[in-house]
Amino acid sequence: MPVARKQVGATGTQSVTISFAGFNRAWAVWIGDRLERRGVRVVHQRWDPQAGATLEDELRNVMLAPGRILIILSDWYFQLGPRSHDEWNRALRTVVAPDSERFAAVSVTTSALPGATSVFGAAELTNVGEVEAERRMLAHLGLPTDPLPHTDSGRPGARFPADTPEVWGGVPRRNTRFTGREALLSEAYHALQGAGPGAGVVTLHGMSGVGKTQLAAEYVYRFGSDYDVVWWVPADRRALYRQRLAELAPELGLVTGAEYGERLRAVRDSLRRGQPHSHWLLVLDGADEPDQIWDLVPTGPGHVLITSRNPEWREHNSHLVEVPVYARDESVSFIRRRAPRLTHTEADQLANALEDLPLLLDQTAGWLNDSDMSVAEYIELLEGGIDQDVVKVSADFPLAFQTAWSILLNKLRETVPESVDLLRLCSFFAPGSIPVRLLKEMPPGDLPEQLSGLMNDPLLWNRAIGQLRQYSVVRLESHESSVEEAASSGESIYLHRMVHKIVGTDMPARDREEFIDVVRKALAAADPGRPIDALYWPAYAEIAPHLKWAEVLLSRDPAVQSLVLNCLRYMYFSGEYRAGIKLGERAMTAWRELLGETHPRVWDLSYNYANLLRAVGDYAETEAMERAVVDHLRTERGAEDLEHLRAANGLAADLRGLGRYDEALELSRWLLGSYRDLLGDQDARTINAQNNLAVSLRLLGRYEESLELNRRTLESRRQLLKARHGWTLFSEINYATDLRLLGRYNEAESLQAQSARVHRIALGEDNPQTLLAEFNLALCRYRSGERGKAATAFTRVLERGERVLGEQGPLTLMFAAGQSCFAREHADIDQARTISDYVVNGYLMMLGENHPYVAGTRSNHALILRNVGERDQAHQLMEQALTDMTRSVGENHPWTLGCAINASALRNLVGDPESAAALTELTVTRATEVLGRTHPLTLSARVAHAADLRGLRDRQRAEKVENEALGDLGSTLGAQHVHTVSARSRNRPFWDFEPQMI
Question: Which of 397, 408, 708, 997 has the smallest CB count inside 10 Å?
């Protein structure tokens, strides 16, 4: 029965010192908050007894603190050291009992505590709600328990520790054996709390096995009460990270569609704005490749905690916290908690032998506690090595790990041999999070006998998992958002990379063959079969990382080969180009050797691989690859073979990329006719060929013809595919682009604005096609005169393009060309020049000297040189651009006509008005013939010609040409359009070259 307690402040000291184990920080914070609200001064003192000191001395040190001492009783408080119950009983009787009025206590555990703790008469705070817990604590301290009056101070109260944050997901179970690391936890906490808005990023950095993930998890449990949202995300792979982050949308209460891209965009925007929650913590576990995901790290008022082996995170505005191996006292404390039968001396010897590596200490101490083997015998076994003919391990590991692991594996074989089978199966998935549910979902007939029992017997399965968890070989994970989903989807387990690597070295050849076949079949069975549909991209994001480890490229199974091809398609359509190229390159090598150069699967593979290479601008390589396939298939199967037509379609795209537009047009026309004859007008392949013909026409400046084809393509795709299908959306970009190039700016902007919004929802804001839609919208707004909106869009698209696609990708260079032109006229001429330099050089490296894109971007650059006063250099460069463009695409191409408009301006500037006037007169004639009298490019040529005539003092002709041009501008674009107003003010027009899609 609790004894009467002295009231706080009875002697005039309104203070309480809270003594707590670090594990119970949340309770200490909550209790301190409750007391401070009632005017009590609170001192927090973390209980951390030194290994060499007696408990009596440590308790006497606590008594030096001011006021009453409130101890938070828990298993952790009495385990620190660790000390036995006998030691604690003796110390409590010696120190606390004689001066019991100085002490008070609350209990936050239901576990058995040392018997002498009865001296505290502790208030029980477990299994009660917040109001009752506060009442009991206050009453125990002799404080009034009346509710405090409501105030409008706005000060948020500390969260009751039994309440989890409003949003909580993916966090590993708390490690009840977590030891030490107090300084690291404190450094991470203060770094995050002291960071400014948008800068709260801390990276826990260290080698494998030092406990970075466990440290992050302990941080979450210890400081989680400070947050409204805690979300744990595996970050070792970009696609999986994006998927897990998108899953946060419904938990935040965000109203979105089912599309993955919409959810991801909504989450990032919500975190950035801090709505509906500003106190959020995002944990990125295993982010060893900063370049892969740093652009996706959310900004905003919350905090980001990263675990990584890579110190380069410091280059991305992250505070780096180095995580070393355990200090020796931490090792000893941990071992004695993990293996209570060991003495302090034995724990010290074991820690020294295992080099204080936390992962190794955890695994070894766990099974050693259950073993009859003494520490001396174990160390002797370690020092004596192992039979390399029985267990083969990698030289990459520390010797202690190699030997200790072989001993643990033998222990597992003796106790639960099925756990070794499960572990070996897992070694054919990628390290980290392993979706073992894929194995359990396989039909029993697809499993070898020794595995069938394991997968189909829940008791045996749970026993194997339990044994592996007991020895800290794996940990259970759950990323589902509800209990119902967890029950239906099954487990995922986490296997550390060090364990993963060494498991694979110790496996009989027969087992290896059987187990890897099982994993391959499991992955193939999980293939949704719809890599183009964004709804299924999360499934592919989960599957793709495991392909390498299951060695799927060596499989002859058609289902496994189809999975590889579908993953390549997914990577292409989702914009994961770099990962796709790596997979495609390895697949080409493996399948050519496995299947032969001319196997049909190799043709499938080369087509998908070429798509990925083309996406990064490697047109020369893809042209050679596709031409070889086309020539072979035409000879072997005939020109009308569908595989030949598909390869020829790819070849036409390569020709467009290389600037060989006439060849591409001829091939595209033939392909469309062939598909129509074989499949009819409404087959998806025919519609795709029609789309590609339109692209070829646009690149040749035949905008009206391209517009008509794209109109029909868009209508067909809207009928055959859903409105949010990627190909339908791509047709909207094409159609809007043609409208814009024809000067129908309002129509183009209306369509593109709607399409860009749907792109963000359906595909995600960082998908390459979404970026293209946003860029075309920026161009539409620029041409319509909405310069403010255009400026923001140009900058945003270029920044995202550089992050997602790299600085030298075709789309990034296209975005940069647009940004440079805009900056030349409306922003920063120095920025325009810098960007333009890298655009021209980028196209030179990618496409070569004779490509029209090089000529076009040189024309843009010449205008920048003109603006900064470098007239002669500008004139020389512009004349070169005009000559090169004429040679590349002909004298009547709109690009050549645009270069001519610019060249005439430079000729005037260097004192050659006669040549300038002659050039604009010729340009007006050609533009009228090719584009029509009222096309914006023709109107620009007419306005420029009027200016040149004024320069020759032919005022009568100049006035006539100018008035006619102004009249047509007013009727075509409107009297108040920026181009009309500019022409009326006699500002000479210039032409911007725009690289186009291929």
Answer: 708
Sign for the CA dihedral angle at 749, 754, 757, 759 comes to negative
| Cα separation, 484 vs 544, whole angstroms | 26
Q: What is the mean pLDDT of residues 953-967?
A: 92
Q: How far apart are CA 415 and CA 61, in angstroms?
A: 47
Quickly tell me which residue has 């250099």 as its tokens.
873
Beta bridge partners of 678: none
Structure tokens at 22: 């670090």
Least confident of 72-81, 513-522, 560-569: 72-81
Tell me whether strands 280-285 and 319-322 are parallel, antiparallel or unpaired.
Answer: unpaired
Under a CB-based contact definition with an 8 Å cutoff, are residues 220 and 171 in contact? yes
Instruction: Give the CA count within 13 Å in the CB-facing half-sphere of 924.
Output: 20
Tokens (6 digits) for 477: 């994970």
Task: Please tell me the least confidently modeled range out of 50-59, 101-110, 424-433, 574-583.
Answer: 50-59
Say how many C-beta atoms besides its own lie within 10 A of residue 48's C-beta.
Answer: 12
| Spatial CA neighbour of 252 closest among 269, 235, 239 | 269
DSSP state of 553: G
DSSP 125: -
Q: Token digits for 725?
A: 């299908």
Q: What share of the chain is helix, strand, coil (3-state, %, to 5)?
A: 65, 5, 30
Helix extents (H) in 68-123: 75-79, 85-91
Q: Determine contact, residues 77/21, Cβ cutoff 8 Å.
A: yes
Radius of gyration from C-alpha coordinates of the chain:
35
759: number of Cβ within 10 Å: 28
The answer to whether the beta carbons of residues 249 and 241 sit under 8 Å apart is no
DSSP H helix total and E strand total for the chain: 45, 14
Beta-carbon neighbour count of residue 3 at 10 Å? Answer: 10
CA-closest candidate to residue 24, choices 159, 280, 232, 221: 221
Which run of H or of E encompasses 308?
Answer: strand 303-308
- Helix ranges (H only) for 234-325 are 238-246, 248-251, 260-273, 290-293
Q: Which of 150, 151, 120 is nearest to 137 (CA)?
A: 120
Residue 97 phi, psi dihedral angles, 5° rounding: -55, -45
In Å, what is the CA distance from 930 to each residue of 75, 705, 920? 86, 12, 15
Burial class (CB in 10 A: 0-12, 13-18, 19+), 433: buried
From the number of C-beta atoms within 10 Å of its C-beta (0-12, 13-18, 19+), residue 525 rates as middle
Residue labelled with tokens 């007006």: 924
pLDDT at 476: 72
pLDDT at 630: 94
Report the pLDDT value the prediction gives residue 417, as an integer from 0 to 100: 83
**Chain center to CA of 539:** 15
Return the DSSP state at 202.
Answer: E
Residue range 394-453, pLDDT digits in tens: 333 444 566 666 767 777 777 788 888 888 888 899 888 888 888 878 877 777 777 777
Q: In the predicted model, what is the mean pLDDT of the chain?
A: 86
Tokens of 525: 């069975």
Of residues 868, 866, 894, 893, the one with CA closest to residue 879: 866
Q: What is the three-class DSSP state of 285?
A: strand
Count the Cβ atoms, other than its own, within 10 Å of residue 914.
12
With a CB cutoff of 8 Å and minimum separation 6, the contacts of 392 are: 505, 506
* Residue 374 DSSP SS3: coil
Q: How far apart are CA 801 and CA 808, in angstroms?
A: 10
Using alpha carbons, list the distances in angstroms from residue 124 to 138, 160, 582, 729. 12, 15, 59, 62
Buried/exposed 204-243: b ≥16 CB within 10 Å, e otherwise: bbbebbbbbbbbbbbbbbbbbbbbbbbbbbbbbbbbbbbb
Q: What are phi and psi of 61, to 5 degrees?
A: -65, -40
The pLDDT-based confidence of 48 (bands split at 50, 70, 90) is confident
| Beta carbons of 910 and 881 less than 8 angstroms apart | no
